[in-house]
Design brief:
Elements (H helix, E strand, L loop, with lengths): L6 E3 L17 E4 L38 H13 L2 H10 L10 H11 L11 E2 L2 E2 L2 H4 L5 H18 L11 H13 L1 E4 L5 E6 L2 H4 L2 E2 L5 E6 L15 E3 L23 E6 L10 E2 L8 H12 L6 H4 L5 H6 L2 E5 L13 H20 L4 H14 L1 E2 L12 E5 L4 H24 L3 H29 L6 H19 L33 H9 L6 H26 L4 H5 L17 H6 L14 H33 L5 H11 L10
Parallel strand pairs: 7-11
Antiparallel strand pairs: 1-9, 2-6, 3-4, 5-6, 8-10, 12-14, 13-14
Helix pairs in contact: 2-5, 3-5, 3-6, 5-6, 11-12, 11-13, 12-13, 13-14, 14-15, 15-20, 16-20, 17-20, 20-21
Amino acid sequence: MEMEMEMRGEEEIELGQDLTPPLPPLSFALHDSFLSSHCSSCFSPLPPLHTPTFPNNSHHVLLPLYCSPLCSASDSPLHISSAEPRLLRLLQSHPSTYPHGDSSDLRAALRLLHSLPATSPPAPHRISGLLTNRLRLIDHDDDLRIRDGARAMFLARTMRDAQDDVAPDDAVLEEAVLCLVLTNAVEVQDNTGRTLGISVYDSCFSWINHSCSPNACYRFLLSSPPPPQWPETPLRIVPAGQIESGVCSKNLLTKECGKYGPRVIVRSIKRINRGEEVTITYTDLLQPKAMRQSELWSRYRFMCSCKRCSASPLTYVDLALEDISAVNFNSSRLSSDISFNRDKATERLTGYIDDAIADYLSIGNPESSCERLEQVLTQGLSDNQPEGNEDKSELTYWLNPLHHLSLNAYTTLASAYKILADDLVISSAIDNHVMKAFGMSRMSAAYSLLLAGATHHLFNSESSLVVHVANFWTIAGDSLLNLAKSKLWSEIVRWDLPVSDNLELYHIAKYKCPKCSLIDKLETYSRHDPVTHADFEHASREFLHCVTNLTQKVWYFLVQGCRYLGLCKNPIDFCWLDTSKYSSEYEVLTQSTGTNCGNKRSFSGREAEEDTNQLRMYILYLGVHCLLYGEYLASTCYGRYSQLTCHVHNILDGEEKLSNPCH
């Protein structure tokens, strides 16, 4: 009988615990665009003015570069023997051989194929325990991509072996291995979330199934060689059916893989019982159900039936992530009960917002992007029914402030306003530009806080969103801290906002709030003491209490000049979205005359200076709280020495590097 492909907890495991040691990859490959900037062995960025250890040739064929002789010695023999150079030359000289873009899937498949034992050819449906999914993949849209890729791999291998009498129709094994890579490879990301390449791991990782409400996550280690101080963690998960023995099947792919490349660590984000299935996510959990299902089917050919996807009616989180209202301005009554085509509304809103975000990311016009995004958030999007339609009414579609498109908009607005503010400060010293730059810095911080608060609100109902929340609270804290420390405060004394030039922003790493225990919780993590669910819940409640009080003191100031932000009554507590009082998102926003989070104050004289300095300190305290909580959550889902926790340390300590194992 064939063993079921799933992994289960071998013992009782609390949240925030590593489930595996750093697992080395079976095969890996950088994306084409990073071959000239990152090490092809460990995926680390190459140092500035790097002299290639393995130089590119004079014909400009992309070849691997390495950060050290050690990485070169470990990887370049496999690169050459796997026929990668032949493949890269083939794709350059004959682009029509594989007109499907990036070649990392093909290169990773070649490496994996070369590492197979030569004694017994594997079965096309499974190779050393890993599912190829070949029959499902080649029967759909990826058929041409897979066949072209397998043919290119086959030609590269035959050129390497100087074989001329073999037909490309014999590329069955190449096809199977390429399907294995497409099915099992994961995208390797750096600490900024940028995808550098792909990697395939053995059954200890690849057998972990997907859930839209997972109990585990994973992180990557990009360094060479492995840190000597790293505390080795035993393997705490085993295949289904081996709970009693606790033995994880040995993988046959040990010929040349396993010593280098991006390593992966699996970590619990919920409590896992002995024998309970361990799951991770294969998709973005902040997408609504339909988008998750579509992506999973397109890439892996399965429909998720986890508890979250099977819920009827939809969970609160999934309802919020897809909630759209429609308003008929020709009607005397505003109501969300209006019948409208939700698929059409979603398509129109998605197209508009994606296009507005592209103004910033692709065209490089952040000002246009901000204007368009705030327009649709504040005014909705008209249906624009074509002429001749018998129904003369015109609907306007409105996004729930927790809709996934709203969250995407907040992310873009926070980043775009920061870029605009930085550009203004650099390009001009004109007084009105300085004030405008300061206003944009405020709005960037406000949108970052709104994004963190909105996601945390969803996290309260779906705890597997902890990875997103950790990142967003960290970004909000960094943005607020930068605003509090901004030199622009000294300029706005001319704008009726007096600020003392002698205000001391003390060493914030020493800050310890008397009302919450985040510092104590982080010290617990530093001692590697287990954190219980009750401890986690207590720390989160304390944080929310402190950050809510601080937000009430500064929100009115952060949102000045932005109508949409001003209409969001409270970026932390979203009880104001209760639709029992208002019949649509439109009414929630338009019935709000302003924010309930704090009151506006006037500034004049010595008292004004004290008030403004106090406001600045409140922003500082709020930023520190957000950073500390982001670090606490990051320690839970990534570990104490992860890139994100080290990033927070660097911000709070004001140092480039720390003497700990993450550097």
